[in-house]
Every structure is written in structure tokens, then in C-alpha cells.
Design brief:
The complex is a heterotrimer. Chain B is of the alpha+beta class. Helices cover 69% and strands 6% of the residues of chain B. By secondary structure, chain C is of the alpha/beta class. Chain C is built from 14 helices and 15 strands. Chain C has two domains: 23-125 and 227-248 and 305-328, D-Maltodextrin-Binding Protein, domain 2; 128-223, D-Maltodextrin-Binding Protein, domain 2. In chain C, 40% of the residues lie in helices and 16% in strands. The chains are: A mainly alpha, B alpha+beta, C alpha/beta.
Chain lengths: 368, 396, 341
């Protein structure tokens, strides 16, 4: 950095010692401020030294790049990125017809932009609703086709990332309103309704997701009248909605509970009916308070959809596994898992950063 | 809408009923209950009909039949010729084992990482937050696959096993340690341990009463610790100090004897522990930050030392913020242990899966899963609620 | 407002996904009305059914589905594949979610009777074998006392394994992993001394080893695993179709009819058997309530049984299997088609 004003410089009698400012000062203050911190720093640097070079060797220096045969990969110790050249489409889109894969790509872009748009508090107004009203059918048309000259793609061929987004997206869209009703029911004055809601919420929250998915895939067909079947994807989706609604109900309940009772009393004293009270006074405030908890539930739910692999759906995780079953390309699971892990990480990381941002934004007024 | 005048009075009656909040509430509840019962009955009758049509037998009679499959690790004795019921018991105990250990380890690890995130060492703080972010944002199933791969691929085969101490072996068949040979003295040691714990509790109660009465403090913790350590050792020495250990010995394909922790168990425990610890770390950090800074300042101005500030001022207050969300993490860990099926640890779901496959008893198997996990959840909730009410702020 | 659009989307999903399938006896009509065959396949088993890099299903089991669809609808691509796990497969067939289950399923008495299934002719004769690393010096299954063995759960494989060791009074420690890829990885990492699965799978697993010569497949086969497509009981008409499509594929190989000389054979062949099979001499299709070119379409789409075998699991593929007992009976194998007449 250059000092523009030399005259000013000369006036300062003495610069601070070099050990207090600049890189060295920073190091002293942040890495070597006590003896145990110094020890920890050295330990960590040593670990870096041990771990990073082999990883670089594997991932870059010894790796096989480009579109080559699997036999080439088997001759080196490095990563086989050729596997991803070959299988990226299968992992990302599952069984969706190869020539039509631009359609789920656009659908995903629309979906992600809609979600990104909805994340911005400035966009929270009527026009956002219209964006969704246009966007959702557009996604449906792109995915199914069958009109506008697009060929029909049955939902049994959907897979990969679009399926993961769909399962989690629809799960939340339907699970959220159900969750709100369940949360209200849980705090209702009517004992029967309260009992039903509590039983439902605790029953679902008390068991692992894979048992719910098992129920949806193995037991559900037995619940339906003879001759009626619901396809596997929808059954899994119903299971996921049931699961999401119970968890979201608990997040909303947290918001309802933290509202001061004065709000309820004020609404009552205005003579509002129960639903008006909830819709106009309670829920807008309660939902606002529970947004961070809701976003955290969203993240968990997004990750949990990976369990549909256990019932044989080709979501992102399932498609990754399917890509690994090809006899010619078997054994490159490190590359495959790394690729998939990065995709999950990117989505979840942005969601968690967003939840922190919201938390700060929403609580500015009440902070100490 | 026009209404015939003939039913005018009747309608008024209904309307009046409708405007009576109490009556309306009863109607709502009756309708809700009716719907639930109707839906339940509908599903139930469909199920019965389907089961009958497809000749699928119902009931838990299959639990008495011979299972015919082997289970790799079990806390109780189990043979392939044992019943399905016993197989379920083995799976249940395996689930309990991994969940319990996982909860303990995740709590310790999570607390450490949470405190490290607040470290003044920049590198440590950043590394701790990278740990948290990476583990929290990748599905736990994927992490289990990775851990299992790491354990089985990096460790050597049994013939080249690491031997960090005589009799202790680490290989891709697991972690083998010597097991003490059965001796009646072990029973006495257990009794001594139990006695020591009871005595410690009594001592604590007495010390608290005395402190309330006289204000004098008594070093309860060191005394209890000494007692818990010393009594079993005394029992052991009185019993003749038996030191016979069964060492794991490489025999044929694998080590025989000793105690073995399998790679599947290791991977599951490691995966669940690290995943959950990332969440607990965040909770711990939030809890510590949630304690008003004025509290520490006030404590410091009283002249308390740093450790004491942490022990008597910050921690008790932070715990109140930490315990409720940690409870749900414990529940999550227990439920996530059902992913054992993916990496071959014979937990309840894994054993149940095999049973389901062989017998076709889907409803019964899933019912067993749900009952067991619900009981676990209930037990953990009850315990944590009890603990939470104990540490809750008591306002006088 | 938004809620409404969600509900509309939901109704759309529901309407397209909920469908009334055939009641027993009407599977054929349902397939024709729908214009596609619903076929249950494995979620991923190399050579039998797994999606290729472009997401299209391929494999021996998949070709059987294609042949059936071609026979009924004249279009081998009119198949909707439902990947099924081992737990789901029978429920899916029983509840009508799929019309035919072509998912390497072993024909056993229990399945034939208590699960309400009918098995069509066997499309692949398999058996359970073992693979070990050579350095262990194991020559026979009987040397495996005390070994750790990798196995996939929920199949007959696991039971056969336990039965075999009990019968021979040997001990073993199972490592039971649900996922095929994970079992393979565990075995190659040395977690197990031996690996057991159907012998068709062993060869392909071995071929993906870092060093295939370090592993050997033991000579013994400890079980019989006849694999074939299955249909629901109570619809004999559809059962007949599945049964005879498989026979037609085998019969075609016996007559030397393949996807290349097919048209020429129909025009020029004087062999009455070939003429009946390919519909040059009508009658066979009518008995099955199909078009006369039913077998012609099937063979045109996927070839005869020999071609299906060569393409998916034969010596030139990654699995590299010999015909062996899956050869024609005339070559000393077990493939014996009932006469199409």
C-alpha cells in the first residue's frame, strides 16, 4: 500500500512495532496468542501438510481427465473424472430420456430462481405469488410434456436432482399448510382435536423416516381397496409429506408459543372469530418468528429425501448408486460420492447461510 | 338460498346451536373423531380384505419360527436356528448399543467443537466451523458410506494387523482387545461399584444438607470419584486379584477370542457421532453466546476465577438453552441409527428387513419397528424432560 | 391463492398417478388399453437390468419385458419400467402396480404357492458360488470354516449360505450389506475372506477388481437359482402369453432364426415349425389372442434367446459368462422350449 501523503507521515513520531501490525501482528493475535494456541496451530498446520498433498495428487495430478474409456482409469491411482463425463447425466437426471434432458434443466433453473426470488424479503409481495402461479405449471409442463410439441415423459422416468428437488419441494409445499393446521390443532382448546394432533405429530416424529418410507412402499398397497394402485413415486411423496408436516408443525408451534398472550387476548377482545384471529393476528407474527426454525427443518428435510434410495427411487442419491452399477464403470465410488456430496452441500449450505441471514434480519429490533 | 317456512323453527334451533361456542366445539370434535375413526376403519377393512385375498397370514406367530439366517454380531448368544423373535431381540440390543454410545460420544465431541468454534485461535475457530458446516450439510447416509469405505480400505488385513499394544489389534476385521476371562470376582466388583454409586449419592445429599445448614462445603466430587474407583479395586484384590485375559489370536482367517468391535459398528458409530456432534456444537455455541455478557462481568467483579465463572455462572445458564434442542438431537441420532442397514450393521431395521423379506410379514415387521422406536423416543424425552426441569430456573 | 395452485398441481399429480389396474383375467386388455406394459425390474444389476449412461434400461430381464411388449403391442419400447427392491417386488406384483415381474427372482415352492405368483419358464439358470482371494490358499468351499463372508441380505442367498454351513458343521461370520456396490467394495477392501452371490454375478464382480487375477471363483455351486419372469395368479391368459413369448425366444434359437435372417425366414422357409412360429402359417397368434406376428415382433425387437444372452451377459460383455447350462438342450444345456404348435 502506498502512502499518498508523505508530509503527514513525517509528523507521526513512531510507527507501531512490526510485531503488532500487519501479517505478523495478525498471526500473533490470532494464532499464537497463548502457548496452547500456538501448539494447536502447529498441530493443525502439520495435519494440513500431511493431508493436502496426497489429496492434490489424487484429485488433480494423477487424475484421469476427459472422455476416455474406463480401462484407462484403472491404470492409475488418481481420481477418474472420466467417470463423471460418462455418468454425470445419469446422476443428475436419472432415467429421464437423454435427448430431452434440457427440459428438466430448464425446470430446475425456474424452480431454483423462484426459490431464490422468494428468499429475498424485498420480493415478498403479490407479484411473487404470480411468479409461482406461472412457474409451477411451467415446471409441470416441462417435466411431463405431452403438449406444445413436447413428448410425454411419465413420472416413472424422472430422477436425479430434479426428483430430489421435486420430492423436497412438494413435500414442503404440502407439508407446510398441514403442519400449520396441526400446530394450531395442538394448541386448540378442544381435547379431541388436540389429542388427534398430538398423537399424529408424536407418532411421526418418534419413528425413523425409513420406517415411514417402508410403510409407504410395502404396506400402503395393502391399505387400498383391491384394484386401486398408487404409483411408487406418489406413495413416497405422501410418506414424505406426512413426515414433513409433523416436523414443520413443531417449528410453527414454537412460534405460536413464543407470542405473548396479550396478542391472543387483544384479538379476542376485538371480537374476532377463531379463524380471523389466527389469520390476521396470530399466524403472521408466529410464522415470522418461526422462519429460522422452518428453514432448518427445510435443510434437514432436503437431506432426508436421500433416504428414498432405500425404496428404490432414483433421486440424486439413488441415481448415483445406479451409475455405479454399470459393470464397465464399477468401483469409482469416491468420485461419484464426492460429486453428489458437493451438490447436496451447495444446496444445504446456501439454505443454512440464508437462515442465519434471516435470523439476523428478523431479530434486529429485539436484540440487546 | 330460500328455506321453506315449515322448517323455520327447526333451522333457528340449529342456528342457535351453531352460535353456541360450546356446542360448536362439541360438533367439531365429534366430526373430527368420526372422520379419523372412519378413515381408520376404511383402511383396516381394506387391509383385512387384501390380506385374505392374497393369502397372507397375519399375526406375530412367525416370531416363534426358526430364522435360518446368521447375524454377525450380537450381545446375547444367537444361532441361525434360533427364532425370529430372538433375532429381533439381537437387533434391538444392537440398536440400543450404538445409540447409547453415540449419544455419549456426540455430546462430548459436540461440546468440544462448540467451544473450539469460540476459540481465540483463528485457525482453530475456522477449522471447527468448517467441520460443522461440512458435516451438517451432507446427508448422513452418504457420510456413512464414506466412513465405511475409509475404515475398510485404509486398515490392513488381519495378517498385517496393527498391534499398538500387546493383545490389541486393529485391522479391517475390527478392533480387537483382550477380554477378561469369566470369574466370580467380576460379580463382586459390580456389586462394589453399585455400592459406591449409592454411597456417593448419599454423600451428596448429606453434603448439600450440611451446606444449607452451616454453609460449610464438602468436596463431594473427588470423594465420590475416589470411592467409585477404589471400592471395585478393593473387591478385586480381596477376591485374589485374578488377571487372566483371553487374548485375541490370529487363527485361520481371523482373530478368535477377545472382544471385537466390528468395522460396521465403528463406521456407524463414527458417522452418527460426527454428524450429530456438528449439530450439538452449534447448540452449545448458541447456548454459551446466549448467556448475557453482564453475567460473566458480574461474576468476574465478584472475584471468581475463570474456571469458576464457567462452572457456576455460564454453564448452568447455558444448559437451560442447550438441553431442549439437544434432546431432539438425541432423538435424531437414535432414529438415524436405522441407516445401519446401508452399511451392514445388524440393527433392528436390518434384521427386521431380512425377516420381512423371508416371511412377507410387512405389517408386523413395520409395527415392531415403530413400537420400538416410539418407546426409545418416549424414554429419551421423559428422561430429558426430567433433567430439564431439574436445571430449569427456579424463581423464588 | 398459492395454496390453490399447489392443490391444482397436486390434483394433476394424483390424476396422472392413480390408475385402476386390471382385475384378474383382464391384464391383457389393460395392457392394450394403456398402450404399454408395466414391468418390474431390479434397481440395478449389471447384465440383467440396469440403466445405461443415457438412462435407458438394458439387460437380460429388460429384454424379456421388451419381447413381451413387442408381442402384445408390436412395440418393444412400449414398456414402463418400475425398479423394485427385493422387499417391494412381490407386493408390487400382487397389488397390480406391475403386470409382470422380470427381476432375477428365484422360483421356489413357497413363492409359487403362498405369494400368489406364477412363474413363467426360466430365462436364466443360476447357482450360488463363492469367490475368494488367492493369497488365502483356499481351494474349496469346505476350507472356509471360520471365514468372514460378504453377502447381500433378503434373498435366498443368505439362507442358502447359513444352510450350507450348518449342514457341513462349519462356522462363518456374515457381513450383510444391503447395497450391491457396498458389498463389492467391502469384499475388495478385504473386509471379508469370501464373497458369495449368484455365480452370474461373481464373474462380473471379479472383472472389476483392481487385479482380477488375485481372486478366484471356487468350483462348488451350493444352490439352484432358476430365475424367470413371474405374473399374478388368476389370469391364465396373460400367464400363457408370458410363458409362450419366452418359449418362442428359445425355439427361435433352436430353429436358427435370429433378428437378421428373420424376414427372409418368414418369406422363404419351408420348415413348418418356423412357419408356425413366425406366423407365416397362421393359428398360433389366435390361440394366444395376439396378432399372428407376435413371435416375429418379439424376435425382431430383441433377437432370439441366444442373441439376448450374448448381448447382455455373454463372453464379449463385461460379465463374460459362458452359455454352460444356459445353452440349448441340443448343446447339452437346459434351455428346452415346449413346441410351438
Amino acid at each position: 500500500m502506498t502512502m499518498p501523503n508523505t508530509q503527514h507521515m513525517s509528523e507521526t513520531s513512531q510507527r507501531p512495532p512490526v510485531t503488532r501490525v500487519g501479517v505478523i501482528g495478525w498471526l500473533r493475535a490470532n494464532l499464537f496468542n497463548t502457548w496452547y494456541n500456538s501448539l494447536l496451530t502447529i498441530l493443525i498446520l502439520w495435519l494440513f501438510y500431511k493431508a493436502i498433498p496426497p489429496f492434490v495428487d489424487w484429485a488433480i495430478l494423477d487424475a484421469v481427465w476427459g472422455n476416455v474409456e474406463s480401462t484407462v482409469c484403472r491404470q492409475t491411482d488418481g481420481a477418474c473424472w472420466a467417470f463423471l463425463y460418462e455418468k454425470a447425466n445419469l446422476i443428475l437426471f436419472g432415467l429421464y430420456p437423454f435427448e430431452e434432458q434440457w427440459r428438466p434443466t430448464i425446470a430446475m433453473i425456474i424452480f431454483v430462481s423462484l426459490v431464490a426470488l422468494s428468499c429475498h424479503p424485498k420480493a415478498w409481495r403479490k407479484s411473487l405469488i404470480f411468479a409461482w402461479v406461472i412457474g409451477v405449471p411451467a415446471i409441470a409442463i416441462l417435466m411431463w410434456g405431452g403438449i406444445l410439441g413436447l413428448s410425454y415423459v411419465p413420472n416413472t422416468r424422472w430422477g436425479g436432482l430434479p426428483l430430489t428437488l421435486l420430492l423436497s419441494g412438494l413435500g414442503l409445499m404440502f407439508g407446510f399448510p398441514i403442519g400449520v393446521f396441526l400446530a394450531l390443532g395442538r394448541r386448540s382448546n378442544m381435547p379431541t382435536i388436540r389429542t388427534i394432533c398430538i398423537t399424529y405429530i408424536e407418532l411421526i416424529r418418534g419413528v425413523p423416516l425409513i420406517t415411514i418410507l417402508f410403510m409407504a412402499s410395502v404396506m400402503f398397497p395393502l391399505f387400498l381397496p383391491t384394484g386401486l394402485t398408487i404409483d411408487k413415486l406418489l406413495r413416497a411423496q405422501i410418506g414424505l409429506i406426512m413426515f414433513a408436516s409433523a416436523y414443520l408443525a413443531e417449528a410453527v408451534r414454537g412460534g405460536l408459543q413464543s407470542l405473548p398472550s396479550g396478542q391472543y387476548e387483544a384479538a379476542d377482545s376485538l371480537g374476532l372469530s377463531y379463524w380471523k384471529k389466527m389469520r390476521l393476528i396470530i399466524l403472521p407474527q408466529a410464522l415470522r418468528i418461526s422462519i429460522p426454525a422452518l428453514v432448518n427443518s427445510f435443510i434437514s428435510f432436503f437431506k432426508d429425501t436421500s433416504l428414498v434410495i432405500i425404496i428404490g427411487l432414483f433421486d440424486l442419491m439413488g441415481a448415483t448408486k445406479a451409475a455405479l452399477t454399470d459393470a464397465a464403470w464399477r468401483g469409482f465410488y469416491k468420485e461419484a460420492y464426492l460429486f453428489t456430496a458437493i451438490i447436496y452441500f451447495v444446496f444445504c449450505f446456501f439454505m443454512s447461510k440464508y437462515s442465519q441471514y434471516l435470523e439476523q434480519r428478523l431479530y434486529t429490533g429485539t436484540r440487546r | 338460498m330460500t328455506v321453506p317456512t315449515g322448517v323455520e323453527t327447526n333451522r333457528t334451533g340449529v342456528a342457535a346451536l351453531w352460535h353456541d361456542p360450546q356446542a360448536r366445539s362439541i360438533i367439531y370434535q365429534a366430526v373430527a373423531l368420526g372422520l379419523v375413526i372412519l378413515a381408520g376403519w376404511y383402511l383396516f377393512s381394506n387391509t383385512l380384505q387384501n390380506l385374505e385375498e392374497r393369502n397372507i397370514s397375519t399375526g406375530f406367530g412367525f416370531l416363534d419360527r426358526s430364522a435360518g439366517f446368521s447375524i454377525s454380531e450380537s450381545l446375547v448368544s444367537y444361532e441361525a436356528s434360533d427364532t425370529y423373535g430372538r433375532a429381533f431381540l439381537v437387533g434391538l440390543l444392537n440398536t440400543l448399543q450404538v445409540a447409547l454410545l453415540g449419544i455419549i460420544l456426540a455430546t462430548i465431541l459436540g461440546t468440544i467443537v462448540g467451544i473450539l468454534r469460540l476459540s481465540t485461535n483463528w485457525l482453530v475457530a475456522k477449522l471447527a466451523s468448517a467441520y460443522v458446516e461440512i458435516l451438517r450439510n451432507i446427508p448422513v447416509l452418504l457420510q456413512l458410506f464414506v466412513w465405511y469405505g475409509v475404515i475398510t480400505i485404509t486398515l490392513p488385513s488381519p495378517r498385517q494387523a496393527f498391534e499398538p499394544m500387546p493383545g490389541v489389534f486393529l485391522s479391517n476385521r475390527g478392533f480387537m482387545i483382550p477380554a477378561p476371562v469369566d470369574d466370580p470376582v467380576h460379580g463382586y466388583m459390580g456389586i462394589a461399584l453399585l455400592l459406591a454409586i449409592l454411597l456417593s449419592l448419599a454423600l451428596r445429599a448429606w453434603a448439600r444438607r450440611r451446606q444449607n445448614r452451616t454453609g460449610l462445603q464438602f468436596p463431594v466430587f473427588p470423594c465420590s470419584l475416589a470411592m467409585i474407583l477404589a471400592l471395585p479395586i478393593i473387591a478385586w484384590m480381596v477376591g485374589g486379584a485374578p488377571v487372566v485375559f483371553e487374548l485375541p489370536i490370529l487363527e485361520g482367517f481371523n482373530f478368535q477370542g477377545g472382544i471385537t468391535l466390528s468395522p460396521e459398528f465403528g463406521a456407524l458409530l463414527l458417522g452418527l457421532t460426527t454428524y450429530t456432534s456438528a449439530f450439538i456444537a452449534e447448540i452449545v455455541r448458541g447456548g454459551i453466546l446466549g448467556v448475557d455478557h453482564g453475567q460473566t462481568e458480574a461474576a468476574a467483579s465478584l472475584g471468581l476465577r475463570r474456571v469458576r465463572v464457567l462452572r457456576f455462572i455460564v454453564l448452568p445458564q447455558a444448559l437451560r438453552l442447550i438441553v431442549p434442542p439437544t434432546t431432539s438431537q438425541y432423538l435424531n441420532l437414535t432414529k438415524n441409527s436405522s441407516l445401519a442397514v446401508a452399511i451392514g450393521y445388524p440393527d433392528l431395521v436390518s434384521v427386521g428387513n431380512t425377516t420381512l423379506n423371508q416371511t412377507g410379514q410387512a405389517i408386523e415387521a413395520v409395527t415392531i419397528f415403530m413400537t420400538v422406536y416410539l418407546s426409545f423416543s418416549l424414554a429419551i424425552s421423559v428422561f430429558m424432560n426430567w433433567y430439564n426441569s431439574r436445571i430449569a430456573l427456579v424463581e423464588r | 391463492m398459492t395454496l390453490k395452485s399447489f392443490l391444482a398441481a397436486g390434483a394433476f399429480v394424483a390424476a396422472s398417478a392413480v390408475a385402476m389396474p386390471a382385475i384378474a383375467g383382464e391384464t391383457l386388455d389393460a395392457v392394450r388399453d394403456r398402450g404399454e406394459l408395466r414391468c418390474g425390474v431390479n434397481t440395478g444389476l449389471a447384465g440383467f437390468s440396469n440403466p445405461d449412461s443415457e438412462g435407458n434400461w438394458q439387460g437380460l430381464d429388460v429384454d424379456v419385458c421388451k419381447a413381451i411388449a413387442a408381442s402384445i403391442l408390436g412395440d418393444a419400447d412400449a414398456v414402463s419400467y418400475t425398479p423394485l427392491t427385493a422387499q417391494q417386488r412381490f407386493t408390487a406384483l400382487q397389488s397390480g402396480e406391475v403386470d409382470v415381474l422380470s427381476r432375477n427372482t428365484t422360483w421356489t415352492l413357497t413363492r409359487d404357492t403362498s405369494l400368489g405368483l406364477h412363474f413363467a419358464p426360466i430365462t436364466f439358470y443360476d447357482g450360488q458360488g463363492f469367490m475368494v482371494r488367492k493369497e488365502l490358499g483356499v481351494e474349496s468351499v469346505h476350507d472356509l470354516d471360520g471365514a468372514t463372508i460378504c453377502v447381500q441380505p433378503g434373498t435366498t442367498t443368505e439362507l442358502n449360505l447359513a444352510d450350507f454351513f450348518r449342514a457341513n458343521e462349519m462356522d462363518f461370520e456374515p457381513v450383510v450389506i444391503e447395497d450391491f456396490e457396498e458389498v463389492n467394495a467391502a469384499y475388495f477392501a478385504g473386509r471379508c475372506d469370501a464373497y458369495t452371490t449368484d455365480s452370474s454375478g461373481l464373474a462380473s464382480v471379479r472383472s472389476t477388481a483392481p487385479d482380477p487375477t488375485a481372486h478366484m471363483i471356487l468350483p462348488e455351486i451350493i444352490s439352484k437359482e432358476p430365475l424367470g419372469p413371474a405374473v399374478r395368479q388368476g389370469d391364465d391368459e396373460f400367464f400363457n402369453i408370458v410363458k409362450w413369448v419366452v418359449y418362442a425366444l428359445i425355439e427361435a434359437e433352436e430353429y436358427g432364426v435370429n433378428s437378421e435372417n428373420l424376414e427372409e425366414m418368414r418369406e422363404t422357409s419351408e420348415n413348418p415349425g418356423i412357419k408356425r412360429l413366425l406366423g407365416a402359417e397362421p393359428g398360433m397368434g389366435e390361440h394366444l389372442d395376439l396378432e399372428e406376428d407376435w413371435a416375429y415382433n418379439a424376435i425382431e425387437a430383441v433377437g432370439n434367446y441366444g442373441e439376448i444372452f450374448e448381448r447382455n451377459v455373454g463372453p464379449d460383455t463385461d460379465l463374460g459368462l459362458e452359455r454352460g447350462i444356459n445353452g440349448l438342450w441340443t448343446d447339452g444345456g437346459l434351455m428346452y422350449a415346449m413346441p410351438v404348435r
